[in-house]
Amino acid sequence: MVQFADLVRSTDVAIETAWRARDWGTFVKLWLVTAIGVAVCSLLLILAGGAILIEGNRVYHLFKAGTEGSAAFNAMPLYAGLWNFASPFAAVTAVVGLVSGPFMMIGKGGHSEKTES
């Protein structure tokens, strides 16, 4: 089984190594894959958490109204609202990952020896 923390550490080391070695093809590939991966993870986490809450709400209505009242409870608008929240959130996460990656690497790459005058 892949350990998530080890995967994050190894990916971070690979991105920094590609940056320092000026291997731009590898850097861009890793940068794009990680930005998209973070967006997909955020989308799945929001959808999973929201689905648990929506289904909990449906169970509540089942016990409150009984079997005849639970059929009248339509969860599709709730799922539509969840999707309308999760998809823009994931898009913003991807944009932040795409924009912030090079800026962080530029900040890391500025290790120059300062000479005293």
How are the secondary structure elements laid out?
Elements: H1 4-20, H2 24-70, H3 76-109
Task: Explain this structure.
The chain has 117 residues and is mainly alpha-helical. It has one domain (4-108). The protein is 84% helix and 0% strand. α1 (4-20) runs antiparallel to α2 (24-70) and α2 (24-70) runs antiparallel to α3 (76-109). The protein is elongated, with a radius of gyration of 22 Å. The model has no long low-confidence stretch (mean pLDDT 83).
Q: Indicate the percent of residues in helices.
A: over 70%
Rg is 22 Å
CA-based shape: elongated
Q: Which percent range describes the beta-strand content? A: under 5%
Q: Could you give a short account of the major beta sheet?
A: none
Euclidean distance between termini CA atoms: 54 Å
The number of helices is: 3
Identify low-pLDDT runs. Answer: none
Q: What's the pLDDT, averaged over the residues?
A: 83
Strand segment tally:
0
| Number of individual domains | 1
Structural class: mainly alpha
H/E topology pattern: HHH
Please describe the structure with a list of short key phrases separated by commas or semicolons.
single chain, 117 residues, mainly alpha, 0% strand
